[in-house]
């Protein structure tokens, strides 16, 4: 009986997960859910949806830098996304240099790839953001451009409808006057 009772106990130890492992797994799941809800909130707030993201990191630290406690890392990022009707792809590099006192980061390369559009103003925003290597400027400009485009579209649609109503009333008035 002692031998057989020991078997189920060891079987349970092998096949039952460690409670601490499950807790960390639950923590990870809750973190992922939290990040997804944050991303969804930002997407709703800004209208910007990121469909794909990739990052490659390259350590550029050499032996001399290591001796001086300097670390140099190059990160290559690629984002695919959209903001309402405008799709975009961003490719940028960030060079990070860390020494004993501080960490500094600089965008070394910044390319914005967009489908050709009839919006010349948007092309100007994109060119300016690329020139200044300003990621925030790009997203802010894109968000406000699309937002104001929607406002203009609704306004012109309203005036177009009002114009059609006026034409319709005018034609009917002419027909009634003719009769």
UniProtKB/TrEMBL annotation:
Pfam name, any one: CENP-P
Name this protein carries in UniProt: Centromere protein P
Organism: Carlito syrichta
Gene: CENPP
Entry-linked InterPro entries: CENP-P
Any one cellular-component term (Gene Ontology): chromosome, centromeric region
One of the protein's GO biological processes: CENP-A containing chromatin assembly
Region called Disordered, residue ranges: 1-23
């Amino acid at each position: 009986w002692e031998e057989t009772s020991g078997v189920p106990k060891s079987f349970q130890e092998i096949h039952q997960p460690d409670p601490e492992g499950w807790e960390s797994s639950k923590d990870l799941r809750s973190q992922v859910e939290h990040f997804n809800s944050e991303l969804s909130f930002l997407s709703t707030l800004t209208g910007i949806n990121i469909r794909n993201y990739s990052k490659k990191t390259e350590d550029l630290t050499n032996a001399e830098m290591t001796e001086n406690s300097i670390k140099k890392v190059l990160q290559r990022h690629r984002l695919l996304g959209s903001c309402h009707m405008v799709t975009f792809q961003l490719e940028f590099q960030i060079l990070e240099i860390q020494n004993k006192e501080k960490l500094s980061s600089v965008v070394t390369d910044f390319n914005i790839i967009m489908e050709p559009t009839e919006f010349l103003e948007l092309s100007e925003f994109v060119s300016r953001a690329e020139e200044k290597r300003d990621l925030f400027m790009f997203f802010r400009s894109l968000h406000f451009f699309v937002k104001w485009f929607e406002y203009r579209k609704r306004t012109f649609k309203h005036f177009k409808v009002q114009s059609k109503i006026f034409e319709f009333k005018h034609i009917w008035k002419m027909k009634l006057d003719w009769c």
